[in-house]
Amino acid sequence: MMAVTGDETETGTSGDLTACQLQNTGSSLPQGGAETSTQEFVKSANPSQKREHRLMKNREAARECRRKKKEYVKCLENRVAVLENQNKTLIEELRSLKDIYRHKVE
DNA sequence: TCGCCCCGGCGTCAGAGGTC
DNA sequence: GACCTCTGACGCCGGGGCGA
């Protein structure tokens, strides 16, 4: 499902910090190119049909937009969890290194 | 049980930004 | 400039939790 696995703790600190980007998934129709049936419909439709069509497209776009946003937030939450784990591990490592250093100095 | 509040999802509108 | 997609903002609705 998501790219963030949640079990990267010590390595790969900079690896996928660019994850969780909101991006176009390519699910929308291409805007250029050959004439689509949609475009043909829009050309021949009356104003109220055009409005219905526009509302329907926007309805679907809003649904998709919300789905992507939820996915993005979930991805961010996963990253937070991963980074918190990394942070804990690093703090622990630092503590033990300090300990070792102190024993050597004494 | 009822009224209230909160939350999540939905549809719609408006506006920004891209493409032709 | 016309048309398109995407997304923030707004209001509405249904469901669940909670106190009276």
TrEMBL record:
Region (Disordered), start-end ranges: 1-62
Annotated GO CC locations: ATF4-CREB1 transcription factor complex
Please give the Gene3D superfamilies that the UniProt record associates with this protein. 1.20.5.170
**GO MF annotation, one:** DNA-binding transcription factor activity, RNA polymerase II-specific
Question: Which Pfam families does the protein's record reference?
Answer: bZIP_1
Where found?
Nucleus
Protein name as annotated: Cyclic AMP-dependent transcription factor ATF-1 isoform X2
Q: Which organism is it from?
A: Notothenia coriiceps (black rockcod)
